[in-house]
Amino acid sequence: FHNAKCILPAPYTKLSQYLHPCDMCASHSAIKLPLILNSTNFCHSQLCPPSPVCPLVSAGRVLCQLFPCGSEEVDEAMQSAQTAYLKWRKMAGMERARVMLEAARIIRERRENIARLEVINNGKSVTEALVDIDVAWQSIEYYAGLARTLSGQHVQLPGGAFAYTIREPLGVCVGIGAFNYPFQIAVTKSAPALACGNAMVFKPSPMTPVTAVILAEIYKEAGVPDGLFCVVQGGAETGTLLCHHPMAAKVSFTGSVPTGKKIMEMSAKGVKQVTLELGGKSPLIIFKDCELENAVKGALMANFLTQGQVCCNGTRVFVQKEIMPQFLEEVVKRTKAIAVGDPLLDGTRMGALISKPQLDKALQYVSQAKAEGGKVLCGGDPFVPSDPKLKGGYFMSPCVLDNCRDDMTCVKEEIFGPVMSVMPFDTEEEVIRRANNTTYGLASGVFTRDISRAHRVAENLEAGTCYINNYNISPVEMPFGGYKNSGFGRENGQVTIEYYSQLKTVVVEMGNVESLF
Ligand SMILES: NC(=O)c1ccc[n+]([C@@H]2O[C@H](COP(=O)([O-])OP(=O)(O)OC[C@H]3O[C@@H](n4cnc5c(N)ncnc54)[C@H](O)[C@@H]3O)[C@@H](O)[C@H]2O)c1
């Protein structure tokens, strides 16, 4: 098993082939994946099927050792995707839509199972994982709808001549994903890619290798040509091989800013198109005229989903001075009440962070904040659930930091853990200047009852998204992406079609050629 080779492109192998009795948990069988592949560091190739009592979940154990895809496997995946692409691109949008709708239907039908696997894969609560899976099938449905409507333009020219445009696919697109929304990111990239007639080779994060494979199986079951959506496993080296591969027409990347810069550099060498969905340190501005209860709920949504590991989180919370005491009292009360623990239980609202290094990093930010003058109002410690089976897990109690200043490390840098930094402000002009004083520009939010102020603030914030009187809602119809170092290109919404297609102009002469020579 440990030496097994990765053969993910067609002919595709089913996960269920790898069901074996679980060594660690007597009560179920485990899935052993010979196809997932990172050498020693991370996780999960031996997974128990969904069960609320499985001791493997979030317990911080190395479940198995995995092997990264090398150049041979990457090339095999790219070739296989290219072959599939040549078939898929010839199908009419209506035909592609039919297959995609079937994939969406299968996901909807198996939402609970996929959500539970996502919990094991990632550590987030099952309540959140269910939302992720729902967003995923909605995304495929949405782009299936757009696949049916793809069309060009007709342009009249002098003398009866005319031109028309054809929206064509790019070819084989590479998708590289982050660990925080493993299934959803795989879908967010592949749904518009496939709708436009492309193929995709996708590399999930080595921390969360499993559910992208489930997606590949579902696409196959729905009827896409063999190899149209291939999954290769591995870390930076495998990602590098993908970005440099001559057959890659585009790279769509979700991850951190430092990696994003490398992806852009590698893609530039091959003049490949790039979409970069990168990190953030987004501001959430709460004015004194807000509906306070909604603002508090918004601040929690802006900070604690997926254990705080969300790119667009509003982690710099600016609160107008006059309401600071009430805001803090309420936000701390609710933060303390967040149920942390076994992510497979329905009542849990916060599961485990992705890894020990990620947990240590978040805790370190809290220590540094204290050293720099911040005050911990609650949380910020490792959390040990009462269930002995979960003892080794990477749990952390959600943290609210008061007394923060703009120059503190916890306010300037992306923590990617459950840490909210709160800062007071006086005026609108001041808070906009401070909110924009960052190299990031992914999202932002404002709570106020003043309608003019809300739109004025939205206009002046330098961010790809601004939420008014809510935070972190991401319907698939809504374009999403960054300003400044948070990246470029968009995902979701109609506009994404433009990032997965190219326009051909065909010019038709109806008369004689008027030659200058
Ligand atoms: N803007 C968005 O939509 C969005 C969404 C989710 C996460 N994120 C960001 O992602 C980051 C957290 O995710 P992460 O820790 O997985 O990010 P990361 O940059 O460490 O890794 C992301 C992916 O890139 C791969 N990779 C790493 N080095 C590479 C290289 N040299 N060449 C090619 N691929 C390489 C990784 O294996 C992984 O699949 C945060 O900064 C977060 O804000 C952004």
From TrEMBL:
Gene Ontology cellular component annotations, sorted alphabetically: cytosol
One Pfam family of this chain: Aldedh
GO molecular-function terms, A-Z: 4-trimethylammoniobutyraldehyde dehydrogenase activity; aldehyde dehydrogenase (NAD+) activity
rRNA-binding listed as a keyword: no
SUPFAM superfamilies noted in UniProt: ALDH-like
Active site: E277
Aldehyde dehydrogenase domain residues: 59-506
InterPro entries: Ald_DH/histidinol_DH, Ald_DH_C, Ald_DH_CS_CYS, Ald_DH_CS_GLU, Ald_DH_N, Aldehyde_DH_dom
Localization (cell): Cytoplasm, Cytosol
Catalyzed chemical reaction(s): an aldehyde + NAD(+) + H2O = a carboxylate + NADH + 2 H(+); 4-(trimethylamino)butanal + NAD(+) + H2O = 4-(trimethylamino)butanoate + NADH + 2 H(+)
Location, primary (coarse class): cytoplasm
NCBIfam families: PRK13252.1 (NF009725)
Biological function: Converts gamma-trimethylaminobutyraldehyde into gamma-butyrobetaine with high efficiency (in vitro). Can catalyze the irreversible oxidation of a broad range of aldehydes to the corresponding acids in an NAD-dependent reaction, but with low efficiency.
Listed PANTHER family: ALDEHYDE DEHYDROGENASE-RELATED
Family designation: Belongs to the aldehyde dehydrogenase family.
Assembly and oligomerization: Homotetramer.
Protein name according to UniProt: Aldehyde dehydrogenase domain-containing protein
Organism: Amphiprion ocellaris (Clown anemonefish)
